[in-house]
Amino acid sequence: MSIAPYIKVIGRGKDGARPLNTEQSRDLFAQVLDRTVTDLEIGAFCLAMRIKGESAEELQGFVQVTHERCLPMEEASQVAQQSELGVVSLPSYNGARKLPNLTALLAQALAQRGVKVLVHGLAKDPTRVTTAQVFEQAGLPVVSNDHDLARAWRDGLPAFMDLGHLCHPLSQLLAVRWTIGLRNPGHTVAKLLNPFEAHASQGVKSIQVVNHTHPEYALSLTDYLQLTQANALLMRGTEGEPVADARRQPRFDVFLHGRTSTALSRAPEDGVLTELPDLPSSRDATETAAYVQAVALGHQSMPASIAAQADCLVASLQSLKAE
Fold first, then answer.
1. Within this chain, do residues 49 and 83 fall inside the same structural domain, yes or no?
2. Domain count for the chain
3. How confident is the model at residue 251 (pLDDT cuts 50, 70, 90)?
4. In this structure, are 129 and 211 located in the same domain?
5. Range of 298's domain?
6. What's the whole-model pTM score?
7. 102-130 pLDDT, tens digit each
């Protein structure tokens, strides 16, 4: 097979390219993930989409076929079914470049509130400090399968899973970045994965944090969340991580079944900052992990913005449970 006909549609530049529909996108992305096409075609696809940008329907197709190739979560879903709240999915694909990576702190705060938390992402990045590294230094579970995830949840702990274990074909697509030097649609798809959506019919309530780094992405991601009737908290991430900036709370837009909930959403913190929270002095994984542990034990205060994000996610799950 070949994806050349699709590349001809999406590869005509910013003004000449046209979007694919959901079924075309499913076919295209399935061939890319399954590696039934050449490396040259995959590179062309990555560059064409990088220039054009993804439409909501294209993302819908891409995410659908990716979910079909994700690790089944049967045992973990059974644990989630029995929980009072449900699951929060945190996509962690950027890591820390300048600021401490506090995704593990958010995960820990949610777990302490009774939420089942799956953080998925890349275990290693040669240029940044990953959440997996912070998890390891903090003694939090880094798991590779459904059984170990379920065990971590039974112990009341959040867990990190590398994308290579959650969806190996997608992790291979993300690795193309190190060949061509640019991110590709796979990175957007990874941030939209919620492997527990498939278990909603079994009574599993789940919500995902969807974060963006540039304001224009908020518009396209809103279109996607509405189209797919998703349960999500949309926000501007900290250096691309799904955690609120510890210095100032960003805007939280909560979507339940694709519709914005004004009651649950929160306005951003405005005005001049009068004080800053006591944060790690560097982005070092060991120092960040020590800080996460200190906050969990009550030896240091939780940044107000991250506490607000955790509260917002819990309230959203409670709203889903009450339906």
1. no
2. 2
3. very high
4. yes
5. 74-321
6. 0.95
7. 999 999 999 999 999 999 999 999 889 99
